[in-house]
Amino acid sequence: MPIRRTFTPLALATLMTCGGAHAQETYKLAYIDPLSGPFGNVGEIMLTHVAYAVDDLNNQGGALKGQIKLQLLQFDSKLSAQESQSAFQSAVDQGAKAIVTGGSGSSVVAALIQAANRWNQRNPGKEVLILNHSSIDPELTGKACSFWHFQTEANTAMKMKAIANFVKKTPEIRKTYLLNQDYAHGRQWASYGKQLFALARPDIQFVGEALHPIGRVKDFAPYVANIKAAGADSVITGNWGQDMTLLLKASAEAGENLRFFNHSAGSMPGTVAAVAATGTGQLTWVAEWHPGQAGTPQVDALAKAYKARTGKDFLSPRMDLTPRMLVAAIDKAGSTETVKVARALEDLTFDSTVGPVRMRAEDHQLLLPQVVNTIAPVDGKSVRVGWEGTRYGFRTEAAYSGNELAQGTECKMQRP
Question: Is the model's pTM score more than 0.85?
C-alpha cells in the first residue's frame, strides 16, 4: 500500500480551514507524486507549490462563492506505477474527485490515467479527474488522450520546438550528443531533439547517443568520457533531479565546457549550485517562467507571498495554476460534478500569472508560454538574481507564446 504522508504545515492549515467550515462542502483532491527516494526532494517542492495554491484558494473562499472548500490529500508514488495505482485507489476510497500528479514520469501518469479510465467507467457519478502538471509525453494528449486527463504543462514537442528555434540562431552549436534516462520521457526527449534540431539546423551533426537507468547512476564519468571522445560541443538531455546534477558534476570534473539542452532541470534543487560550483558548462532549459525573469510582476508578487508563507523559493507557476484552474472550472460549471467540471475545463481561458493560457478542448493540452533560458553568472543586466545562495541565476534567451509552439494532435477524444 502507498504511504499516506504526514501533512506539511501548509497542507495541514488547508485541512484545518476546511474542518472549521461546517456549512461548506469539501472537495477532495489528492497529490500523488514521489515523496521519498532519489527524487523525493523534487516531489516535496511540487507538493509545496500545490498546497500553497490550495491554501490560498481556501483563504479566498474556495469555490462556488464560498460554498466549497478544498482538502488536499497526499500520497507517495515512490516513482512506481504500481504504487501510484494503489495510491489512486486509496484516494478515491477517501472521496477524492481529482488527482494532481506529474512528477513521477509519463509512464506512471499514463498508469494513473488508465486507472481513472477504468474507475470512471465502472463508477458513474463518482468519476475522477487527472490533472498533470509535469509529465510531458505528447502521447498523453495524443493517441492516448483521455477525457479525464488534463495537462497543465507544455509537452515535449512544444518545449523542444522552443529550444530548436533558439538553436537555429546559435551557430556555435555544431556537434550534439544525446544522453537520456532510459524511460519514455528520456527516449522522447532524444527523438524530438533529433527531429527538431535537424529541421532548424540541417548542418548540426549528431555524434552519439546513449540511454542510462533512471535514478541509478552514481557516477556519470564514463558517459562524459564517451561524449568527449565523440567531439560533442553540446548535449540534448532530458535528465532531471540527481541525474542532472551528477551529470553536470562529472562534466565539470572532466574539464568539459558542454552546453546542455534540457526541459526543466534548471528549476530542480541543486542544479544551479552544481553549475556555480565549477563555473564550467552551460545549462539551457525551457519553462513557462524562470526566477529573475524581467517583466513578470504577477509572478514576482506570487513568489514573494509564497516565500513569506512557506520559507521556500517559488519555482513553478504551472503547479500553482493547476488547482486554480480546477476551481475556475468548478465555478464555470456551477457544480463539483466531475463530468461537468471536465467540460468546463475544455477550452477554458485562464488569466494566469504568466498571462492568459488556454486548455485546448480537442486534446486537453494547455497552451502556455515558454521561455528558453540559460544558467549564467549574475551581471546585474541580463541576469539579475542569484539562486540557491550562489552568484548564478538565469538569462532569458528567447520567449514564445503557447500558440507559437502549439502542435497538431492525433487525439480522438471519447467523451461520455
Answer: yes
